[in-house]
Design a protein that fits this description.
mainly alpha, Growth Hormone, Chain: A
């Protein structure tokens, strides 16, 4: 099979596995936070929030340059370097003796993950040009499919009394094989793809670019803020066991999976406007309702509904950007992904800082403002004419 005619389905399957392993960014820190905080002396909620956001710092720093790296290294070396960095980062966390070492390992983990997401999204959009929104949703759904599987794995490890250090070493073993994907299947050349694409500077001057970047920033906040804090919130603020906190995250992840797998069909039927506005509004309501002191089942219900509401926001925005700027190269996806990651960095840390002053419930409730900001920005975007026609008009 030549690189000009790559095996699309096999590439999609292998890259979806790589995306699924990305769930360790959330599952490891979130489900092990209480025991890690006790072992590493993280006394303040601000410290916990910084640790939860640390993998996304690495993502944010490197993701902006990931398109450039893909063009210089090619996909094969890019995936090998990414897997090596992620594996090393997880092993550093597993060996951590203090919070700074744990955060350093988490940042390294983020570096490795940040090298991949945007270039692989661009790759899949290039080999599925007739279904960019659908393939973007499917690809990003596997992050939450992986999260679901990893939560089940963590619950099993808890049952057998594995420590958080052993859990992180197990995660490292799952990620290491991702480095071999580029050797197992022929991938299109990133440089060749770039030669057929517009430069980022030209795309950035087109109408709507800034609004897309701003919109995905707030979508990143809405998705990652509650996800990062959810098990700890259920365990500490509501008052349950560590395992039940993990089950809450599992429910959230399952609805994320369902949402992302069904959104492509909803986009074809209703258009992106209803996905953006409806999902954003339901996200704001779910966050606000989840923090009310109405009992554990009310909290889990609303956080589970939040997973469904927020599921289609980011990947649909990525697909919409690909349709609005069809000749853009991987750097467009790198910028969009970096913006979402910056939101993912800001949300956990901001919740932690606010929680130290106002409490964890008001801090989480404040994320509803991010959902409302997303609606305002995207509504304005959809009213702007595109320079090039796209398939999914509102």
């Amino acid at each position: 099979m030549s690189r000009q005619n790559p095996p699309r389905r096999l590439i999609l399957v292998l890259l979806c596995y790589c995306m699924a392993t990305g769930g360790v960014l959330v599952v490891g820190p979130a489900t092990c936070l209480s025991t890690m905080a006790a072992d590493l002396n993280m006394a303040l909620d601000a410290q916990k929030g910084l640790f939860l956001g640390a993998p996304f710092w690495g993502l944010a720093i490197i993701a902006l340059f990931s398109g450039w790296l893909a063009q210089r290294l090619g996909y094969r070396l890019l995936m090998l370097a990414s897997a090596a960095m992620q594996t090393t980062g997880l092993l550093v966390v597993a060996a951590a003796a203090d919070p700074l070492q744990a955060m350093a390992g988490s940042i390294l983990l983020g570096f490795g993950r940040g090298m991949l997401v945007a270039p692989l999204t661009a790759l899949l959009c290039s080999i599925y040009p007739d279904n960019r929104t659908g393939v973007a949703n499917i690809f990003h759904a596997f992050f939450h499919i992986g999260t679901t599987v990893l939560i089940g794995l963590v619950l099993a490890l808890f049952h057998f009394d594995w420590s958080w250090r052993e859990t992180f070493r197990c995660f490292a073993a799952l990620i290491a094989p991702c480095g071999l994907v580029g050797f197992a299947v022929p991938l299109p050349g990133a440089v060749h793809m770039a030669e057929r694409s517009d430069r980022l500077g030209r795309v950035a001057r087109q109408a709507g670019f800034g609004l897309i970047v701003a919109g995905v920033f707030f979508s990143g906040m809405v998705e990652t803020g509650p996800t990062a804090w959810l098990p700890y919130f259920i365990e500490e603020a509501v008052g349950t066991s560590r395992s039940f906190g993990a089950v809450g995250l599992l429910c959230f992840a399952l609805t994320m999976v369902c949402g992302r797998l069904t959104v492509p069909a909803l986009v074809r039927r209703w258009g992106v406007k209803w996905i953006f506005v409806g999902g954003g509004l339901l996200s704001a309501i779910s966050v606000a309702m989840a923090v009310l002191p109405w009992g554990i089942y009310s909290t889990v219900f609303w956080l589970t509904l939040l997973g469904l509401a927020v599921s289609g926001l980011f990947p649909t925005a990525v697909g919409y950007a690909g349709d609005r700027f069809p000749t853009a190269n991987a750097s467009l996806f790198a910028v969009i992904n970096s913006s979402a990651i910056l939101g993912s960095v800001a949300a956990p840390a901001a919740v932690g800082v606010v929680a130290d002053y106002l409490g964890l419930r008001p801090a989480l409730a404040s994320l509803a403002l991010a959902a409302l900001a997303f609606i305002v920005i995207i509504s304005r975007l959809l009213k702007m004419p595109a320079a090039a026609s796209h398939a999914h008009a509102a």
